[in-house]
Amino acid sequence: MGLSEAVIAALLVIASRATSPCERILRADAPAQTGQATYVGQAEPEPGHASEHPAIAGTWVVLGDSVTEKNFWAATSYYDYVCAELGCEVANFGLSGTGYMASGAYGTGAFWERAERLDLAGVGCLTVFGSLNDLGKGFELGAPTDETPYTIGGCMNLTMEALQAKRPDLPIGIVTPLPWRAGYGFLADGSVSPTATTPQECDAYVDLLLEVAGQHGLPVLDLYHSSPLDPNSEQDLALYYTSGYLQDECGAHPNSAGHELMSPLWREFVLGLVADAQGK
């Protein structure tokens, strides 16, 4: 049964009040500010798809932005597909509008701040995914050796250092952000900038993230360069960036089909993290 015109209108109003045109996410209320997981669940393997892989010994923590957060854009996310196959449990710490330095519209904390609050007891592996939200807000990119919260490079270091200090034995993986559609991004006032996510700026951001992760000896899944999704393709935008009656004009938020398409890359990456840790 289709949605009534009144319901559709209400959804569009809610969406328009989100943090920016690239963060149009339907949400009932603001996320918690305590560092608690917004969603914890265990996906059971579908019949005929029982896991033949080693089980993750503990919860998989997913730290990220709106692509990780449970929201309107995707009913089923990358971790749901992976856990349905592997039979693992996930703890979701994805929050809209956040990044290594970006704290989001609700002051919920950048990656480095939330990393410091996480309780990693019983965690089997952890991934950090994102985030081009750091671009276009007037933040200084900084250097890979920075150690302060005043540059993006510094916040990347603080995030990884906090996680490794809590659990030196924990398999931790860094995942670069998905590419956005060229020409979209944020300004400090939340408006769209035609230059905030130029390929050059995005390339520099990802290069910095790759270098910082390398300094910490952390494995990287480089979805920025290897994603099967192309937000600059009109066909992909229609197939993989449209949810219900809304299309994400920024090409930043894949729908369930988009998450499914990239889930094999996630599965192999997570299995590699666990296998490497078991081999040490």
Tell me about this structure.
By secondary structure, the chain is an alpha/beta fold. Helix content is 34%, strand content 12%. The chain has eight helices and eight strands. The strands form two sheets. Strands 1-3-2-4-5-6 form a six-stranded mixed sheet. The protein has a two-stranded antiparallel sheet with strand order 7-8. Helix 4 (152-166) links the parallel strand 4 (123-129) and strand 5 (172-175). The protein starts with a helix and ends with a helix.
Describe this protein with a few key phrases:
alpha/beta, 12% strand, 6-stranded mixed sheet
Give the helices and strands, then pairings:
Elements: H1 5-16, E1 39-42, E2 59-64, H2 78-86, E3 89-94, H3 111-117, E4 123-129, H4 152-166, E5 172-175, H5 199-215, E6 220-221, H6 223-226, H7 234-240, E7 242-243, E8 246-247, H8 256-279
Helix pairs in contact: 2-8, 3-4, 4-5
